[in-house]
Amino acid sequence: MELDVVPEPKREEERVLIDEDRRNESDSEVASGGPALVDSATGNETGLATELAKARAEKEELMQTLVRRQADFENFKKRTERDRHEEARRGVERLIMDLIPVLDGFDRALQSHQDPSYEEYRKGILLVRKQLWDALVRHGVQKVDAAGKTFDPHVHQAIERVETADYPDGSIVEVFQDGYVFHGRVLRPAIVRVAVHPGGGENQLN
Fold it and tell me: Which of 91, 90, 104 is CA-nearest to residue 132?
């Protein structure tokens, strides 16, 4: 009895065919952006996104720092300008304080010479006093309004109280010495005499 003999497969040829198929599959994956290339590209994109976010955060921080520095510089400029202006104002104030007694001297000279023979002299004194006063006014000096006004302890200084019903209680009946204000600051209060009604008005002058 004869047996059919099955020929063995040609192993070498099969191995060649298998290797060829694997090579074709690998080439196909590379050509189509296979898994290896996709993973690498995704990783690169993630890294770039992280670096971009970091750069944006650093830029925002620098911008905020720049804004703060600019604001600090502007405040410094304003503070320096304010200090410079205040120092200049104090210098003018000291000068005015020195000139006020000169103004008082002119006033005393005008009050002490009422003789008509001194009229030309008085005109000269009045002219010089006016020039001095106009200069002080241009720098912000104001005279304290006192005569006939109600006593105000912020700008008036009472050295005498007169009991009388002829004037409103607490009103100023006489000014002994003028007071002056410089940009809202009292350089010297007006020295005054104040009317007080009999039996009242004491608390108003305190």
Answer: 104
Query: pLDDT of 106-144, one tens digit each?
Result: 888 888 767 777 788 888 889 999 999 999 999 899 999
Question: Among all chains, which residue has been given the structure tokens 């952006």?
Answer: 33
Which of helix, strand or coil describes residue 169?
coil
Enter the pTM of the model.
0.58
d(CA 200, CA 193): 16
Residues 6+ apart with CB under 8 A from 176: 159, 191, 192, 193
Number of neighbouring beta carbons within 10 Å of residue 180 = 21
Classify residue 23: in a domain, yes or no. no
Chain segment 15-54, per-residue pLDDT in tens: 545 555 555 555 555 455 555 445 566 767 787 888 888 8
Q: How many domains does the chain have?
A: 2
Using DSSP, state whether 74 is helix, strand or coil. Answer: helix
What is the domain extent for residue 111? 55-139
Look at residue 132 and tell me if it is in a domain: yes
